[in-house]
């Protein structure tokens, strides 16, 4: 027997003075209210209402039980209110600094439609993983090799000048005999992870560039500032290049991409973020989705 539901029907009928009115207050059909009260009477072993009158008149037993039923209903309503408030508690999610405020706002708005209420913590790749480990956030979009990721962001090279070719080869940055500043590729902190950085370094060495021609910047702003007004290139996504007003091309001869997955302290939080928000996170990251 649904004890709480039966007590709600009992209290509603008592307060309305009729089974029809009580059913309307409880927002259930009148026959359902009657069945619930009959089940409660069987459970308790006594009649709650005097059926000999047209009004819903309490028996002495019903009057004695009414205060307990009212307390139970109030407690159940308070619990439902607390549960609703707990469901709306923000889920702190650590995210890369590569997404714009608009990207994050659209992700948060989409999450609300599935009753997931996000609060963002912007952090670098290593810090995001550490924030999950120390439980300072409930979940994080962590950097993983692209072949292991749920989301993949292709990377290329962007600069102020529009390239003539469809791809940019690192060999074109080799210094000639003429003196002058050597062009560099700037790697932003989001890509200072082994599966991106090490591939870039290997491609640099294979192209015959000097070690200093591929440099990891302390911030994305520093990396972008080093490219603006120079012939240097920024390793970035196509979306980032558009935001910065740079011309973007894929890197020739090497596949460079970011990979992302969700990490969380609780498995349920992984599912709450990864499954219903899969497409929304892809849009936020400027990513493609891995095949299932």
UniProtKB/TrEMBL annotation:
The domain of life for this entry's organism is Bacteria
Q: Where is the HTH lysR-type domain?
A: 1-59
Keywords annotated in UniProt: Transcription, Transcription regulation
The signal sequence is none
Tell me which family the UniProt entry assigns to this protein.
Answer: Belongs to the LysR transcriptional regulatory family.
Q: What is this protein called?
A: LysR family transcriptional regulator
Please name the source species.
Amycolatopsis albidoflavus
Highest classification ranks of the organism: Bacteria, Bacillati, Actinomycetota, Actinomycetes, Pseudonocardiales
